[in-house]
Design goal:
This protein is mainly α and 90 residues long. The chain contains five helices and no strands. It has helices at 2-13, 17-25, 33-45, 49-62, 67-81. Helix 1 packs parallel to helix 3 (33-45), helix 2 runs antiparallel to helix 3 and helix 3 runs antiparallel to helix 4. It is globular. The relative contact order is 0.12.
Length: 90
Amino acid sequence: MKDKFHLVINFIEQGKEENAREEFQKIASENTVEYWMTKGKLEQKFQNWGEALNAFQKILELDSENREAENNIRIIQNIINFWNPEMFNP
């Protein structure tokens, strides 16, 4: 099964998000760090911030010391909280 996760991650890294989504949909849901990390990265790539945050939070429930999940959560929170005052200047 790890080969399936590896395949999805490779597609994401190659910029083949649609292929990654197709392959991920073939994987049965499981409550593992590998599953949630793959889902989080895929959702992040499609800018589905809420879904990605939920996936990375699930990882922390399984492995509270997972630095990659923590870093991804911080990145997404920074994206969500970004505010550019110049956008409001006419």
